[in-house]
Amino acid sequence: MSDISRIISDLDNRLLFKDQLQFLTLFVELLGKFGFRGDTSQSEVSSRHVRLAVSGKCAVVSKWKKTITNGLSRAGNVKMEGNRVSRTDYQLSIAFLQRATGSFDPARECFADNRMGCNDPCLRANKFDLIRRLIIEEDPTFFPIVSPDSCKNEHKTESSTNILKDVLQKRTHTGTGFSFKCILDYTDHYRSGTLTPSQVAENIIRAIEDSENMNPPLKALVQWDQKLILKMADASTARYRAKTPLSPLDGVPVCIKEELKVVPFHYRAGTVFLGKEPETSDATITKKLREAGAIILGVTNMHELGIGTTGCNPNRFHGTARNPYNPQHFTGGSSSGSAAAVAAGLCPLAIGTDGGGSVRIPATFCGIVGLKGTFGRISCNGGLPLSFSTVSAGPLCSSVQDAMIAYALLAVPDPKYPHGLLQPPVSFDGVFTSDLKGLKLGIDWDFFKDCNPEIAEACQQAVEHLKCLGASIVDIRLPEMEEARLSHVICILSEMRAWLEHDFTKHYNEMNLDTRSTLAMGSKFTAVDYIQASRQKTRTMKFLKDLFVDVNCILTPGTACTASAILPSDLITGQSDITTLTESMKYCQLGNFTGIPCLVIPVGYSSAGLPISIQVMAKWWDEAVLFRVGLKLEEFRTETKKPIIYYDTLF
Prior knowledge:
By secondary structure, this protein is an alpha/beta fold. The chain is 40% helix and 11% strand.
């Protein structure tokens, strides 16, 4: 028997063994037979090696990928802490279901057609059995709501009017060369009379039409009405002539994700089966934007039902939004159209929702700023209640300053949205300091560097910039990240699957195949799984509360990968790629699971010209420190590359 045959035979015979070190020894030995050398040891197998081993690129290993993957899912790098199983590494989840597109293979078709739920081997391959093995004594937490008093937020209270006055008096750094048009660029023209909202609206209409006639079309907006745009613009023009603008957003073009209600458009949420009739009531966010005088261009594209991070949506009402930095790459999702609209210059502000990175991932992939506020901070009333414990609404913007303006106008208690009724007043106290002295920024370097090398390098350089401005970098450890990641998936998919119970049965054949597959997995989770995940939420939130005693912020990359390429087969029935899904969500899930606020800011570009972002996370309700750090990170980015698709509507 050859060495390779012997090792594979040993692996087959030890699928149920309890000695994970013995398994890893055999696995590393197998990797060595295929030339993988260097940083691999018996107790640590890098995610790069694991991905290579099960990617199918090596014919012999591909034949045994299920054996290897199932073995890792049972053993992995785990240790016993009393009665509790705990992860000791930061491995990405590996599934034996590989990237599938187009018509899908028979095995995946069978999996997707299992409406009662996917099979247990799939859950094991994705390591969900880890959660079932845990013994967690904490009581469950169902909503990640933290009392403002417990955060000990020392910021003074200010009125929204005073906050915006201070913000609007500042001109933030934009670097040299190209820069995105920001909110103040629009209002400066309006106040000076060099342009009117009506003139700008006409320019935008031409830009939207051009973007839809190109090959391939941008597909940022999926519903819009030229007459409505001009009507809102004319009303704004009249207010400026009378010197009575309603707010800093008066006359500013904005877009809203199709997951939120916008009169008179269809409330489809990326599907072909929802929103059969035009909407008759606005979401709270939509209402506030109207009251502020913003020109609502229409509703933006999204991944079907928000269940995906690419933005791939080939159904007849939507199509796949294109990344303005490279139209042959995805925008990220699920707020795909909102990111494309801002990056292409159609508007400086768009609204998205974020249950697993759905604002931050497309903002990162499209090179713009994305904010997920504290859970409950911005009302989600009038949004599709797909996941009630993880989703936050938030802005995608041209700049950090634009995010601050949108945040100040939208972050107020809403009687129709109970999760944010006890939120503290918005404060920007100390945001515009000249340095970062006194700030402690926590970084778990093992977690931070577990991403594409180009991303790690760009983000490390950004950290050095913050250090030069006086910030202290504190080495921290983020415990039980694998448990938190899996628990977040259990919570969001269980909630989505429950809300879609009727539609999953009635409209199953009208869904994209990746949507069917994901919801099928959600069908397999039990009430015990959901309670177990909610118990883990209690633990993870406690870890963060303790951590934020010692640091002001936590830094990570925005995503572990850059925007992936669009294959022709992706545009047929959808695309499912577990590796890309995991890498794009890797740094986002902690914020959704625990409800802490997060901000992503572009800090560079890959060798292929695709944007790279860094993420700043803070304690509950302390968005101000995110903006303070974010403004300084904008200074680090000395050059902003112009997207391939970009419209200057201020001419």
